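Continuing the series of single-chain predictions for the mutant panel. This is the parent chain; the variants come on the following pages.
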Amino acid sequence: MKLVILELALTEYFLPFRRMRSAPGGRDFVWLTAMLALVLSLALLLLATQRGVLDRSVDIFLGKEQGYGIPVWVTPNYLREGGAPEFISSAMLAQLRRDGYKTAPYRNVSEDMNLIWLPGQDTWKRPGTAEAAGGHDARGFDGWAVDPSGPLWPAAARHDVSAEEGWSIVLNRELFAGGYFDFPAYKEGVQGRIPDAEYKRIEAAGEDPLALDFIWLELNLHRPRLVRFDVDWAYSLGLGNPIAFLMPLPLMHVITEARSHPNLCVFPERGVGGTIRVLTLREKFRLGMERPADFERRVERLIQLFEGEIVRRTPFYEIDLSRGYGRGNRCDPGWDKVAVENALDSLDLAFTPSNEMQSDPFAVEAHAVELPCNRLSRTTLDRYKGTLPASVDPDSEECRLAVPVATPNTGYLRVLVYVENRQALAHAIPHIDNYDDGRLRITDIYRDALDRFSFLSGLIDSLRTPFALYLFLFLSLVLVIQIGTLIDHRRIRYGLMLARGMSSLQLHRMLVYQMIVSVIVAFAFSMVALGLAHAYVKIEATKLSETYIQVTGGREIDALPIVLEHLLLSVACVLLFVILYSLAYLRLIGIGSRPAIDALMGD
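Parent structure:
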């Protein structure tokens, strides 16, 4: 019998939707469904708009990284009472991770550090030397050293640095294309110092530096030398604090340790695997063969590239590339073997390395650099040898020690702590403020941005109540009129059904089935309408994203997110209201446990 009632309910509901067919009560179900679709579309649109505005406000004011969450800018608390301030150590970061937060430490790399810079004279326009970027204040060639596998590195270019053969660097598209970078000065700075094939590729870029997928930079390990980096271009580095580049944090740690230990000979030009450096070159023996006419010119070009000197001419040439070797710079002689061999090929010179120097083995960990024990200073070895297994002899050739780079004395000045979503911020902020007796402090700039976002969020929340109230009144008025009209048009039909033996419970069930179908069909139409609105807003948001790319960083902006809980909540509320009012109106017209059939059949 239940299936009969359901079949009857569906037949009566869908009959007015058919063309050229009439039904008792006219097309009331058509109009009811249309009204429900309009109400659901409006409710879903308002909910999606509120969610979209708040979420995009997070992106604008605080930033957000897919897969990590909202970053909170944290520094050591220099104002802490009862103890001296400490750098943010690996132990503190581990505790934050145990508390459920993802972290991203970084180090500032400024021009004053004499660590990495652009070759050439005034290649980067500095304050007081030239106008740049249409009159904006010129910025120094400053950057951050960050983890290439972490959230601060652009998502499309993230990689495990331990698996790389060379280094990558991320450059700021906006700054390099905005007048700060003097491309001709850069070309002049590398001309004659890099292989000809590389220089021709730079020349092929014309006047557009963004066409380059590599760049040569001066890297100062013990003395400056040009090092080739693969380039990833990105927008808005530094989360609202524009910087010129991101460099690998492991590279900075390796260089720092190499500078701290004079006996440590690490050559990091080609990545964490190290490299072999060529100290001297010897011409291959040419029995009965004459050298090319421009042989001397090619040799001079090779010497120019690698700052070498000829130490023998007969019976074969020998060239010394180890400038500084044995003169206070023992661990920075020679040149990368791959670069030397590439130059020899491009110059068509028959030379072979006759003396080479192998890099000391090294490896990078999360917050440590693994180094040979016998290359470390006695102070460093005594301080950390307690971390070695008991079976390892600190004086053996095989001993490797993980030297920490994030202790309370050598840790980080800046760390981003990621909170899962904006709802979790309210708990995370006081947790960070009270972390370990106040050892951490949220930066003033971030607090200002958080206050602005909190104000906007509270303002939007205050508007939610009147909007919800007026939407409820609109829904009530529309449905009271429409459902009341629909049931009144069927009074006589309901009376006949009761007279023929249908119970009032079955009649109630039939109407409930019809209301459920009405809401389902209306929901389907509302999803189509919402999908069209979403597509339109997405197109417009994409245009805005391209216009304000320095704010969005090139990310796709979803200004009208469709959230499952919003869909379920809206449908459940409308369905509940429709069913309750329909049942109440049936009772109002006399269809209760003892229906008055005469009253239904009357005028």
